């Protein structure tokens, strides 16, 4: 059991841990909160993707959900980058 592959960011409250899912050139920040359903969002201007999952959701479940929505994520990002389509490395990748 070695969690070195997953970066953990501790929030100031110390309650929720953000985990990152990488799907090719798409990076998704996963947060668990007291919600009933999974919420997936693509945020302008950078196309930053966040996924909020109910507390106790396993990362593989969140990942499977993200994979099922990958086409939608790319559509949303393509609207933000009409000229690049995010093929290959994203030029506008924010740090």
Tags for this entry?
5-stranded mixed beta sheet, alpha+beta, about 20% helix, about 100 residues, globular
In terms of topology, how is this protein built?
Blueprint (H helix, E strand, L loop, with lengths): L8 E2 L6 E7 L2 E8 L5 E5 L4 E7 L4 H10 L1 H11 L15
Parallel strand pairs: 3-5
Antiparallel strand pairs: 1-2, 2-3, 4-5
Strands ordered across the widest β-sheet: 1-2-3-5-4
Order of helices and strands: EEEEEHH
Q: How much of the sequence is in beta strands?
A: 25-35%
Q: What Rg is obtained from the alpha carbons, in whole angstroms?
A: 14 Å
Portion in helices: 10-25%
- The low-confidence runs, each spanning 5 or more residues with pLDDT under 50, are none
Mean pLDDT across every amino acid position: 79
Q: Give the structural class.
A: alpha+beta
The largest sheet is: 5 strands, mixed
């Amino acid at each position: 059991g070695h969690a070195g592959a997953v970066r953990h960011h501790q929030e100031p409250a110390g309650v929720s841990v953000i985990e990152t899912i990488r799907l090719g050139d798409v990076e998704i920040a996963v947060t668990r909160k007291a919600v009933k359903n999974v919420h997936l969002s693509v945020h302008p201007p950078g196309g930053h993707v966040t996924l909020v999952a109910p507390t106790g959701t396993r990362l593989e479940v969140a990942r499977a959900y993200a994979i099922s929505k990958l086409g939608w994520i790319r559509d949303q990002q393509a609207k933000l980058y009409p000229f690049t389509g995010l093929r290959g490395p994203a030029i506008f990748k924010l740090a």
